Amino acid sequence: MFQPHSFSRLVYAVMVFSLLAFGVLAMAQASSPTNLLARLSGASVVPPNNSEATGNLQATLDKQTRVLSWTLSTIGLSGPVVGASFNGPAMPGDNAAVEVPLQAQNLERGAITLTPEQVDAVLAERWYISVVTAARPGGEIRGQLIVAAR
Predict the structure, then answer these.
(1) What is the rounded radius of gyration, in angstroms, for the C-alpha atoms of the chain?
(2) What is the Cα–Cα distance from 68 to 111, expressed in whole angstroms?
(3) How many CB atoms lie within 10 A of CB 51?
(4) Which of 24, 51, 82, 129 has its CA at 20 to 30 Å from residue 31's CA atom?
(5) Which helix (H) or strand (E) holds 22?
(6) Are 51 and 140 in contact (CB under 8 A)?
(7) CA–CA separation, 42 vs 51, rounded Å?
(8) Phi, psi for residue 119 in degrees, rounded to 5
(9) Phi, psi (5° rounding) for residue 106?
(10) Exposed e or buried b for every residue in 22-35, given b needs 16+ CB within 10 A?
(11) How far apart are CA 89 and CA 106, in angstroms?
(12) Distance (Å, rounded) from C-alpha 31 to C-alpha 34?
């Protein structure tokens, strides 16, 4: 015999369990860091240059703390680095203002705390990194930060 009261309790229990499971999943995704990468080249500088230098940036963004941590390697630069920066918001092919200047003598790894607006721009892939040398004051190599495939 069908009892409406028992059925409504079952529906209620299923709904509560579903909401709890969704909440746990959402918290797990929010707390997992986002991996980013950038491939730097002279061809990505605006306007492009013929530098044969290249670079590789690997970064992690913790969305809860808003900390962006990175490692950067470069090879073949025309000389010592005199400046570098994270710039944005900009799409590939566009230039933008400096968001975060980086210390030329300490580029290989670092960490910074971003504003909520900067986090949004990074996640929208609207930031790039630029490395400057004396021979190329407009930027020797540049790379767009992109969210790495999971």
Answers:
(1) 22
(2) 5
(3) 21
(4) 129
(5) helix 4-31
(6) yes
(7) 5
(8) -60, -45
(9) -140, 55
(10) eeeeeeeeeeeebe
(11) 24
(12) 9
DSSP H helical ranges for 55-149: 116-123
Let me know: does 27 contact 2? Beta carbons within 8 Å: no
Judge contact between 140 and 48, C-beta under 8 A: no
Q: What is the maximal distance between C-alpha atoms in the chain?
A: 86
Confidence of residue 25 (pLDDT cuts 50, 70, 90): very low
In sequence order, what are the beta bridge partners of 74?
55
CB 115 within 8 A of CB 88: no
Q: Work out the pLDDT band at 104, boundaries 50, 70, 90.
A: confident
Task: Output 109 or 1, whichever has higher pLDDT.
Answer: 109
**pLDDT for the residue 70:** 97
Tell me the helices (H) and strands (E) count for the chain, helix number first.
2, 9
pTM as predicted:
0.79
Residue 133: count of CB within 10 angstroms of its CB: 21
